[in-house]
Design a protein that fits this description.
By secondary structure, the protein is of the alpha+beta class. It has two domains: 66 residues, Arc Repressor Mutant, subunit A, CATH 1.10.10; 82 residues, Glutaredoxin, CATH 3.40.30.10. It has eight helices and five strands. Strands 2-3-1-4-5 form a five-stranded mixed sheet, covered by helices on one side. Helix 7 crosses helix 8. The longest helix has 14 residues. The two termini are 35 Å apart. The model has no long low-confidence stretch (mean pLDDT 89).
Amino acid sequence: MSSALASGALDDKASEIIARYPEKRSAVLPLLHLVQETFGWISDEGIQWVAGQTGTTPVEVLGVVTFYPMFRQQPAGRRQVRVCRTLSCALRGAYHTMEALEKAFGCQRGGTSADGDISLEFVECIASCGTGPVVQVDHALHEGVTPDKAEELAAAVRASLGDAAYGKAPPVPGTPGWNG
């Protein structure tokens, strides 16, 4: 990560982002998104860089990183598997679905599989309350994922790892990749 931060490649993008705000510190969130999009996660070095760019302290930036659940402080798998655990999904079996996915992927919630392919985590409301339990794989929603469907979903996610076109096509209404 250090070579890309030190190369100045991000400095130009940071300058463009900071210029959009009346105060530099207002750019903390978009700069954190930039770091995470570039590296896949936010390291201590990334926190230091954002603090330097915005004239804030590293602890202020860390406070933002730890407050928002979309920021990762560890490298993530190639596929992000998120299970909604908000009330509607929980009542429909989200915790049992998570247990089945843990078994199917061979990793614990909040962790990444040993091969680095899958990150598995609980999240709060994915906004599909009537179709729970809902599992989001990267940007694709999978509705009604009961424990008995977890193995099938896991197999499909693993198969997508070899698909170079994965995530590049626009979503088609009525398919699992459709979000709206």
